[in-house]
Design goal:
CATH architecture of one domain: 3-Layer(aba) Sandwich
Strand order of the largest sheet: 2-3-1-4-5-6
CATH topology of one domain: Rossmann fold
Distance between the termini: 33 Å
Number of helices: 13
Order of helices and strands: EHEEHEHEHEHEHEHEHEHHEHEEHEH
CATH superfamily of one domain: P-loop containing nucleotide triphosphate hydrolases
Radius of gyration: 23 Å
Number of strands: 14
Oligomer: single chain
Structural class: alpha/beta
Amino acid sequence: MNTTPKSNRIHIGIFGNTNAGKSTLLNLLTDQESSLVSSVSGTTTDPVYKAMELPNIGPAIFIDTAGFNDNSSLGIQRERKTLEVIEKIDIGFIVIRDNNLKEEYIQKLKEKNKPLIAIFNDYENNKLKDYLKEKYNINSIIFDKENILSEIKILSENIITEIPLVDRLVKKNDIVLLVMPQDIQAPKGRLILPQVQTIRNLLDNKCIVLSVTQDNFLESLATLNKSPDLIITDSQIFKYVYENKPEDSLLTSFSVLFAASKGDIYEYVKGASAIDSLNENSKVLIAEACTHAPLEEDIGRVKIPKLLKQKFGDLDIKHVRGNDFPNDLSKYDLVILCGSCMFNRSHVMNRINSAKNTNTPITNYGITIAHLNNILDKVVY
């Protein structure tokens, strides 16, 4: 069974007009009836996701989308879902049939600076092929499985799906202590995804990994013959761990590690400096990748807002979850993202670029908490 998280896979979006052959292409590439094929316009409604292990490429996920020119009663909603997919892709395929081309959406795809390939379903139109190359720098290929997989392999070599979590911070035989409070957001009997992925990356680096909760953090330090080389904590207890850790132990958090892996850590650190300029009239957007219902201990809905309001007064804080994210960030004085372990790197970087386009400071949960506790300069990333 494939267990590579969706967020760590190359995301390949399949776009085009209704009945261009998008679903047929998905079924061809996956050797399965992953998506319903019909001559009826608008057959594909919500995007269809299909995870695959591609030979000589690795884990990928194909996304079949609704047609650009869907004129059905639900067409507007379906196109909105398709636009959400554009935010996530690493590679885009534009399926063309009968020479139909809706350039508005090609332009939207090009805005994201992702590699795009046009795939002619019925026959190649040399004039259209030259037009796509000249105007949009899009190469074209024929509707053939081997050709398409070969193109994916070439393009994937230049795609960074993630930056390793700890490789730059540790070496073989380092002692790494994980401080992992199991609050009510953690699934019963399981660890949350950031903890699991961090442990795996540490083991890959041949580190000695020890895991504790906050209540036995001090006791665990007392049992060690030497200080941990690195301590990774939940950001919510950054201050406590910093005040009680050995002086020679490096310190970071799961959220900070994911900020560096999924996004632009330097942009986040730069954005954190804007926190000091907030006041009771400021507007802050807090965006969480997960879609679980808010809980009483929720870091984004409860703990960070409480810290901000204690320091700056009753400022205006708006929350969004999952794929919900404003198109225009110019009205906000600060955007705070979660660790984004559920998003792929392309999705996170698009959000960062949206903020940069409007000169809106953007940062991350862990960076925010470290800054508010005046220890950001003591944190490694």
